[in-house]
Amino acid sequence: MIGIGKAGFVIGLFCAASASVALADLRGDVVPPVRWNDKQAAEQRWTPVEFDLGPPNLIFRTYLPKDATTESIHLPDQPASENLGRMIIAGKYTIPVPGEVIDGSIVAYELRYTGSAQRLCVFAVTSAGYGMRAVDAAADGTHTQILSFRPGPDGTPNEIAFSDCRTRGHTILAQHFLRPIPAEATLDDLEVLAKDTAERLAPVIGNIRFTDGRADGYAEAAEMVPLVINGTRSELPVPTAFEVVFNDFDGRTGLKELYLLHQPDKIVRNLVWMVSSPAPTEPPIEASLELLTQQFMLQTNDVLSLEPASQVTTSMPDWASVAAKTIRYDVKDKDGQQAGTLDAVIVWNDGQAYVMSWFSNYGDDGSANAMTSRLPGQTVVDLLTRKIQAATP
Fold it and tell me: 275: closest CA among 307, 339, 229?
């Protein structure tokens, strides 16, 4: 259950278990920014509408055409138990356009542990069968917009979707707008329809204002951990799932380590480890991988084994001028059963080497449970990768 579609109000649970979609790099204004005041909205025959989903950080106001219809519910007061979270379709729109309507849904993902709206939004769109065409996202992953199309049985797009997703503390709030594509539409028609839909939705999305006055972000659902990388000071939002075991990235020179651990009930669910050390020349990847695997075995009491998911490492396209590679291992328990994944990022730039690893005891099987279980660790890895990238010349 991911909440894209014309369903009614739905509550779905993500359940914990004992055991990703790659981010697209399609940038640009998916929905052009439009800012109105009440007078400007009235001149366009639009009217202010408030959506009250209950919690103060989920009450927002925007503008809609006067002939639009809306409905919404308050989110349940009770917590999402001890599961990973729940998905609730909490609101719906219909926005008339000539000869048809744009259907919108408001989906609240109430998470036990917060994470990147970009990651979850990409998962929601792709797992529902839509192909992404453009993505625009905040650097910290807390706000993203996606343009996508759903192919029909013959592969021709039959529906256009605009998605707007925001991290608001422990909740990721997603809005998905769907518009049918006429069967006779050509590629040129599709471009015109996408532009027209974006322009119609721009005042809706661009004028969203939350009544608590707070910007999108991880807020109380994350601890801000200070980092100094290559002399650049910043803060790393770490979801509260993690304990910061140690953090040497405080400006000191020489070998530095960051160690984050999510270990409820003495079971390691997520583990993020990063080490940085001076390296006048690019170290052999074998040496970095040996360091990484030795550290992983030490951290997991040597009860797990690693099998490369692929023997080929791949260069990271965002870092064309930097020696950076990624590799994934399948993790097996002592009985040879699947026990999660270990992902590694290895970077060498300007005389400094970085080795970063992330272990999740939940395999990347494409399910909603896997997504929400892996989301805290994936979020930290995304943020660390961007911070290294921003701090390397």
Answer: 229
Q: Count helices and strands (H / E) in the chain.
A: 5, 21
Beta bridge partners of 132: 148
Six token digits for residue 132: 């992404």
Residue 171 tokens, joined:
């909740």
- Which of 72, 141, 76, 81 has the alpha carbon at shortest distance from 111? 81
Q: Are 119 and 137 in contact (CB under 8 A)?
A: no
Main-chain phi, psi angles of 369, to 5 degrees? -60, -45
Q: How far apart are CA 386 and CA 356, in angstroms?
A: 12
Among candidate residues 344, 346, 340, 345, the one with its CA nearest the CA of residue 374: 340
- What domains are there in the chain, each with its CATH number? 11-210 (3.40.1000.10), 222-391 (3.40.1000)
Question: Any bridge partners for residue 358, and if so which?
Answer: 272, 343
Name residue 97's beta-bridge partners. 100
Looking at the DSSP assignment, which residues form a beta bridge with residue 332? Answer: 305, 338
- 188 CB-near residues (< 8 Å, 6+ apart): none
pLDDT digits 0-9 by tens, 333-365? 878 888 889 888 888 887 888 989 999 998 888
**pTM tops 0.85:** yes
Upper half-sphere CA count for residue 179 (Cβ side, 13 Å): 24
Per-residue pLDDT tens digits for 278-295: 888 887 777 777 777 777
